[in-house]
Write a structure and sequence with these properties.
Three copies of one chain form a homotrimer. Chain A is α/β, with parallel strands linked by helices. Chain A contains ten helices and 41 strands.
């Protein structure tokens, strides 16, 4: 098969109905900008892609430049918005650089990327096997609303597409609509597009006029009818939410098919780049973002949010844990209400319990910080036990300082470790101490006054207070 | 158009199927009692409203009295429940006070307020333009269940309504049902209602008998068929949940249409009185209650609950934040797990971090309380840094006292500030201190003993403990 | 009615498509293993049940042994998987032990337990009243996929069932499918099953061949068409999620019907064994697990997770509370962000506030621990007030020790109570104290140094720090 291929992604339009400062193509869908999903779809057809940009040109080009797969992407700029035919024509100069002879051009909107891969493959097959100069996808709707209508002749062959704005009443009654995906012979496209005129109500150059132009030349136009859902594009925030929910279903179905247990899939959000091992359980409301990786047999508790982090094998993360840019080793027990911040690195069998915050710290095997603690800029040795209410005082208003605990240190509750400070292996810190000086290994260190007791004083205090009323 | 208008809201019935102590009309739908939604709908028709009360009369009247818009609401009492015609008749005495001549009366149940405004406008138009003495809404269902059936003659004109309890088998097969909204000519209503009899199986006076009475007089009865969903009323807790979810969809669609981003709208709850600025992002599971106002470009993290509060422009509220009756200024960073309680007032660029509770306190520009703290009854100056684990001890078992920090105070971690106490601007409090006396500006204050160290004592302690086994 | 009854639950198959180490019948559906739901359904038909086991035989038998209702369950082992007829035949030896004469055998898959009780009752009625030797349930689907097709003769009588794998193209077009539930005359079953052959493409003994065998004997076969949903079984994780969501709807509908308010029922998960009183409100995202019991008029805040616990009458649990194996008395105020761990026992009018963890402790009437505290292994007297940041230091690295507070103790903020320790009734502990020795009733005890102040030192410190840059 000597025919070459190019995908054309039309991404020049404004996103006015999103009511957003950001282009709709830069909005986030399962952790990736929308345009990346469009490029994925374009790549199924061809590694050569032309992206037609216009509105927010620079922002889009910058983001597309980071779409780091091995694709040959060229940009064409459509300076004015004169219709889809005009947008396609803007790309000709770039396409010509590939010096193609026989080629097919797949044309899609940058905001319409819900095709299933098999649908696109079927579409190319239909286009190629019938030798049509133009193929397009259609869908059927009870009320086709603002979509272009497919007008067929008595033999059922497509004759033309009429835009809703230009349609007569009987044409508006047609339920088959233009789904907005085209495949065109490159030579046909180049020759015929210049014949498209803008003598219509909107003064736009419609790409869809190609259909009647091809038919007038007695050339074959093919259609493939696809499920309406696959034709959806993003024009409003509500569309964005709908498209996100469709990807959510696809992604969650995939993970369930490899054995992930989730009883409430409609409330679980897994970004596209997340990786899950075998035998994982995700409770209701779990949100996994970015480059997160969960290893096998881990369980993630309800409403936990995990971003750009690793959770090791057989680790249990209890409800409401908030983990960002952290590495959790195997067989950890985390949460509920544990907050792991960037740079938290937990080896195996570490426990981090409720209302504990770990930032930029390394906790070695078997270390525990189970209650109400702040551990920052610290190195915590094996099997250390950090008592409830312990704070590493890592900041003096100017700089951050480090706390180092050797293996097996026991820190009594409500202690303050004023960094920089080193506690030797096996040392014990008495409860409530403020430790400002290094502690020797195996020493007991404490900072504490004598306990004083004023007998009966509480009763007197209460009497006085009551009298004051 | 010289015809006058009155809306009649039937709200006398018991709510037995709710299994609730509270009238169903007092249940909360997106932050407002159900009856308020009913009154909103009634007001679309007319500013003159009669509410027919009966069960829980006093509670209802009290709540309706606080429906503070500029409406003329009168109450009529239906002492016994003898059917809908009887309920309407109970209102005559009140309606007559307006001394109307030509008038239309819109009759609706107090628990049925899902009409779209355009539907009601279409309905009044149909009623007025055809000059019918009675108009009513119908809906079509595969199985009309317990609803009254619309019986039409061979020309398609409505002849009568037969209640399901009174219907024959062929009548029960009719799919067009009475949706329960009526518009009646006041004179017709007054004259004809007394002819309604209760000689039926239920011994009830049915308002729906008006249809056959009008037809017997050869007078015109009009119908408007509406979507079934708009006819829904609330009889059970399940109905209440369904109605709430319909309003949830309407409200969320509205906010998305003005640019609010929410990827999981089915889990986001926004009360009716909430106001949102431009460019706001609401993550999954966010709940916004009461008179909350979010300014532009703010982002609200997953599962946060915000009630009767303001969130300033470009502020970020991270996951699981719980904010009630608080004012958060612009460019704040709040949460995750931040709790702002009534009277928390945060100026611009304030940071309140995880496991921090703020109550009745003012934090000035740039102040930070990032970890595990309780700040109550306090005034915190600009750029103060409240260390992790700091507690304002504001309560002695009898009274609450105030803590005042000047600008730029640095409070070391795990400190206790025993109120009433004032820390001068620029002062530093050493970690772990209990501060009971005022501190001068720019002073360093601390309360601490010497750190003591018992060399090797930890090891001895462990030996002893092991021997004890 | 002298006919006896046996239920046969086929539970021998592997669960390969679940991609789980655990049998699909041991997966959790609303807090119970799937097989328990199957046994419930089997019991509606008969208290005599034979479970045919094979894959993971021992694990299944162990779990079924704990299904502690008064049922006579026998196990039969199917060693090889040679088809459904073979599975049924494996049970004959066990059935014969009951020495039945006239009997009906209800046959179901262990993973298909969505029948409504009325459906099964209708089915037995149909079977018995018509005197058929075999009855089966069918359902209708647009595309019956991999299900067996119901082949009827021109009079509409069922003639045979053809498995999808064995079906011709016209047979595949049939929309009526075998729902997989059978009722068979015991003598017919015993006599006829041996005639089933495996001369088909799959070399399996199909139970469905009984239909044509019965028809060849000119015996009556009855069908009952049921809603497709009731025929669903569990083969994949996605099926498991779907079945769980169906039970979620049924359970939530039930609780709403008795008056439980829940505005977002699709996000509320209530395990099957949970009990709810009257007038309870469950906010969005609430998860109630295990043997939890909520008494009347309690309110459970958004996203709270409660497991194997009791919540007393009129108690309020605020958002994000995590309660496990705890007993909360009446009129408590719990949360938000309260964590009650196993052994937390709270009497009436107790308050446990944000970021507070209670473990294995008894809090008497009116006790309060409102902020940032850890209370473990403690007995807290009536009306005690535990200040913010208080920690009971219950662990020395080897053992756990107890803390005892008499009635009316006031513990100042940030205190550490080093167990074992007893604070007498009415005593006051000064803020920030580390209490290591018992305190007398009505005494004031504190551990504190003098507050020192270095005038101007903070300013000098800052100057130095700035110079260092």
């Amino acid at each position: 098969m000597s025919r070459e291929r190019v995908s054309l992604v039309l991404a020049a339009g404004a996103s006015t109905r999103m009511k957003s400062k950001k282009s709709k193509l830069l909005h986030n869908v399962l952790g990736r900008p929308a345009i990346y999903w469009a490029l994925d779809q374009a790549r199924w057809f061809s590694d050569r892609i032309v992206v037609v940009v216009g509105h927010q040109r620079d922002e889009l080009m910058k983001v597309v430049a980071d779409y780091h797969l091995d694709v040959d992407i060229k940009f064409a700029t459509q300076t004015e918005q004169k219709g889809t035919a005009h947008a396609v024509q803007s790309a000709f100069h770039e396409i010509e650089k590939w010096k193609l002879e026989e080629a097919d051009i797949f044309i899609m909107g940058g905001d319409a990327f819900l095709l299933q891969r098999e649908t696109l493959e079927e579409f190319s097959k239909v286009h190629q096997s019938t030798g049509s100069v133009l193929s397009l996808m259609t869908a059927v709707l009870d009320d086709a609303g603002a979509y272009g209508r497919i007008i067929r002749n008595e033999r059922g062959q497509i004759e033309r597409i009429v835009e809703a704005k230009e349609a007569s009443r009987p044409e508006l009654a047609v339920r088959e609509m233009n789904a907005g995906f085209y495949c065109a012979d490159w030579n046909f496209l180049r020759e015929t597009l210049q014949s498209v005129s803008n003598s219509n109500r909107s003064k736009e150059f419609y790409l869809t006029d190609l259909v009647s132009l091809a038919r007038n030349q007695n050339r074959l136009v093919q259609t493939l009818t696809i499920p309406y859902q696959e034709s959806l594009g993003i024009n409003t925030q509500e569309d964005l939410a709908l498209v996100a929910s469709i990807f959510q279903k696809r992604v969650n179905s995939y993970w369930m098919s490899i054995g992930t247990e989730m009883l409430s899939p409609s409330t679980v959000w897994i970004d596209a780049d997340v990786e899950l091992g075998q035998g994982i359980c995700l409770e209701p409301g779990v949100i996994l973002k970015g480059q997160t990786k969960i290893y096998s047999d881990a369980r993630i508790g309800a409403y936990s949010v995990i971003e750009n982090s690793e959770i090791g094998q057989s680790s249990v993360v209890e409800a409401y844990s908030h983990i960002k840019e952290a590495r959790v080793g195997p067989q950890n027990k985390i949460g509920p209400y544990a907050r792991l911040r960037p740079g938290a690195i937990l080896d195996s069998e570490v426990h981090v319990g409720n209302f504990v915050e770990i930032k930029k710290s390394h906790l070695a095997e078997g270390a525990k910080a189970n209650h109400l603690s702040y551990v920052g800029d610290s190195t915590i040795g094996k099997r250390c036990n950090i008592g409830a209410g312990t704070i590493t005082c890592n900041y003096d208003g100017f700089h951050k300082y480090e706390t180092v605990l050797g293996d097996g240190v026991f820190v009594g509750s409500n202690s303050s470790l004023v960094a920089p400070v080193t506690i030797g292996a096996g040392a014990i810190i008495g409860a409530g101490s403020v430790i400002t000086k290094d502690v020797d290994p195996n020493a007991i260190a404490l900072e504490r006054s004598d306990q004083r007791e004023l007998k009966g004083a509480a009763e007197k205090f209460r009497q006085r207070k009551k009298r004051e009323h």
